[in-house]
Specification:
Phosphorylase Kinase, domain 1, single chain, five-stranded antiparallel β-sheet, 9 strands, alpha+beta, Aminoglycoside 3'-phosphotransferase, Chain: A, domain 2
C-alpha cells in the first residue's frame, strides 16, 4: 500500500497562513522530513514580522497521520484528534509536551501542527538504551507518576478509549481467532483465564506507549514526552508495564527495577497479583505482527515503517511473549 504524497512547502505555507493570521510577512525555511515509523512528519522554521517590524521565528513540526494501527482497537482513525486534545490539555498543565497550534482534517488528510520541543537529537545516538536511560530514569518515572496523578477533563475523556484488562484480553482472543494461529490463540486464552484474578486500580490518563524512545533529551534532562496517539483511560499498570518491558528487552534490567521502585514511591501505589500487564504487552505486539503478516501475504501490507518492522520482528515478539507467559507459573 503506497503512502500518500508528503506535504509540500506550499501546503505548509497555506497551513501556517490559516493558523497564524496575525503573523505578517510569513516565510518558511529549512523544510526537512523527519524519520517516523508510522506517520509523515516534517519540521520547518516559520519567520514573520511583528507589528514593531521585528523579525521573529519559531520551529514547528507538522504530523500527518497515516497509520491506523492501535493496541486498543482495530483500524483506529481517532489518533490525530486524540493526540491534539490530550497535548493541548497537558500543555496547559505545564506537562512537557509540544504545544498544539492546529488540527485539520481535509483533503491533505488528518494533520496536526505542533511546536518543536528543544532536544539534542535521537536519544540512542552512539549509546545503548541502557547507557542512555540510566541518568534519566528517576525523572522518567516521576513524569509518569505526575501524569497519572492528573484528572483529565471531559473533553479529554471524550476522545480517549476506556481500556480494561478483561476487555484488552477479549480483543486479543478475537484477533487471535481471526488470525487462526493455534499457538497464539492458546496463549491468549491462557491469559484470559487469569484476568478475573486481578483487581484493577482506579483508572488514570495513560500515555499508551510510554517508553524511553518517546522521551526527548535536552541539556541532559528530559525536555518532552511525545507520541500521545495511543492515550487511553485505564489502570496505570498499562504504562508502567510498557516502559518496564522495553527496558528489560533492551538489557537494562537494573534501570527497569529502579524505574518501577521510583514510580511506586512517587505515585504512592502498590501493585499486587500476577504480572498480567507485563504479559499482555508482548502478546499485543505478537498478535499485531501475525495479523500484518497476513496482509503481507496478500500484498496489502501498509507502507509505513512500523508495519514492516512488526512483520520483520514477528519471531522476536513471539519469543518475548512466550518468555513473559512463564511468569504466570511463578
Amino acid at each position: 500500500m503506497a503512502e500518500t504524497r508528503p506535504l509540500s512547502t506550499e501546503d505548509l505555507v497555506d497551513l501556517c497562513a490559516r493558523t497564524f493570521p496575525d503573523r505578517a510577512g510569513q516565510t518558511i525555511v529549512d523544510v526537512l522530513p523527519i524519520k517516523s515509523r508510522q506517520h509523515q512528519m516534517t519540521s520547518f522554521e516559520l519567520w514573520w514580522l511583528t507589528d514593531d517590524g521585528v523579525l521573529k521565528h519559531e520551529d514547528l513540526i507538522v504530523r500527518r497521520y497515516v497509520s491506523t494501527l492501535s493496541w486498543w482497537r482495530p483500524d483506529d482513525r481517532g489518533k490525530a484528534q486524540r493526540e491534539a486534545t490530550v497535548c493541548r490539555w497537558l500543555f496547559e498543565k505545564d506537562f512537557p509536551v509540544p504545544r498544539v497550534y492546529a488540527r485539520e482534517f481535509g483533503p491533505q488528510g488528518d494533520v496536526v501542527l505542533f511546536s518543536r520541543l528543544p532536544h539534542d537529537g535521537p536519544v540512542l545516538t552512539g549509546k545503548t538504551l541502557k547507557q542512555a536511560v540510566e541518568p534519566h530514569i528517576t525523572q522518567f518515572a516521576r513524569l509518569l507518576a505526575e501524569l497519572h496523578s492528573l484528572t483529565p477533563p471531559d473533553p479529554v475523556r471524550q476522545v480517549v478509549p476506556m481500556v480494561t484488562l478483561q476487555g484488552a484480553a477479549a480483543n486479543l482472543v478475537s484477533l487471535a481467532y481471526r488470525i487462526g494461529l493455534s499457538e497464539l490463540y492458546t496463549s491468549v486464552q491462557r491469559v484470559m483465564s487469569h484476568t478475573y484474578q486481578v483487581q484493577e486500580l482506579s483508572p488514570v490518563l495513560l500515555h499508551g506507549d510510554y517508553h524511553f524512545l518517546n522521551a526527548l533529551l535536552h541539556e541532559n534532562r528530559i525536555s518532552g514526552i511525545i507520541d500521545w496517539e495511543y492515550s487511553a483511560i485505564g489502570d496505570p499498570r498499562w504504562d508502567v508495564a510498557n516502559a518496564y518491558m522495553q527496558l528489560v528487552d533492551f538489557g537494562a534490567a537494573e534501570a527497569a527495577d529502579k524505574f518501577l521502585s521510583t514510580y511506586l514511591h512517587y505515585s504512592g501505589l502498590e501493585f499486587e497479583g500476577p504480572p498480567l500487564y507485563n504479559v499482555i504487552t508482548p502478546l499485543q505486539q505478537w498478535a499485531i505482527s501475525e495479523w500484518l503478516v497476513q496482509f503481507e501475504e496478500k500484498d496489502e501490507l501498509p507502507g509505513f515503517a512500523l508495519a514492516q518492522d512488526l512483520v520483520a520482528s514477528r519471531d522476536v515478539h513471539r519469543n518475548r511473549a512466550m518468555k513473559a507467559l512463564k511468569w504466570l507459573d511463578l
